[in-house]
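re the bet — no i am not wrong, look at it urself. input seq straight from the record:
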Amino acid sequence: MPRRSTRTVFCPAGRWTQVEWYVGTLFLTKSYSVGSGVRARWRYYSAGFPPYWDGSFTGSARITLPASFYTSLEFNPDRDTNVTVSV
């Protein structure tokens, strides 16, 4: 059974913070979670297709990053929080 990998990134309220920098030839889906009751907006910029995508969630979400020479995923929460990234 594969071992799940997790890491945490602190994101201050009201500021876009890079959580992922991805370079790869395959689409990549990861789970992201924030503190209880925190609403997090997210966006990515990419050299792949689509080149820009955004959304928001409360609690947790699965986000798929495109195959690309680079993809930058950023979060902007409504309160200071830790974002836990799980593969």
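see?? The two ends are 14 Å apart (CA to CA). told u. also Residues 24 and 67 are 6 Å apart (CA to CA). so pay up
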